[in-house]
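Review session, final week

We close the course with one last complete record, chosen because it touches almost every idea we covered. It is CDP-alcohol phosphatidyltransferase C-terminal domain-containing protein, a protein from marine sediment metagenome with 145 residues. Go through it on your own first, then we will talk.
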Amino acid sequence: DGKLSRVKLASSNIGRMEHAFDFLFEHSWYIALAIYLSKAYGISAILLCVFILLFDSFFYYCEIAFGKAIKDRPLVDYGRIEQLFRKFDGRKNSYILFILIGIVFNVPFYSLAAIAVWSFISAVFYCSRTIKHIYALDKRKVRLS
């Protein structure tokens, strides 16, 4: 469904699978890069890729935890700071840009390292924002009780 469904304000249940395929496609870029770089850099490239997967999965889990607690909108759209950070967070567009820069300057290993660092920063940011918002929600519930 994607952007077209948002424009038309119409979506389908099968269209929800778009996110699953996006997730798969997004990760395939740096997995392929890590496999390629492992010939020259050995386990270091694979470890960077593992950390990227770990941090991205953690960020995804934070989104799920947030979504279960606060149902009206996703974490990345919840507050002004989240909306701003979303433009630069660890996502497909950022990662492809890192890879492109690394290829252009013939330093692809540094692309993978930059993606690992940026995925860590994104995970820490979204974890802290999830905790902040869920904690505030819990405090409001206690006051109302």
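Two points worth writing down before the exam:
Residues 2-144 form one domain.
Helices lie at 2-8, 17-41, 43-69, 80-86, 92-104, 108-144.
Good luck, everyone.
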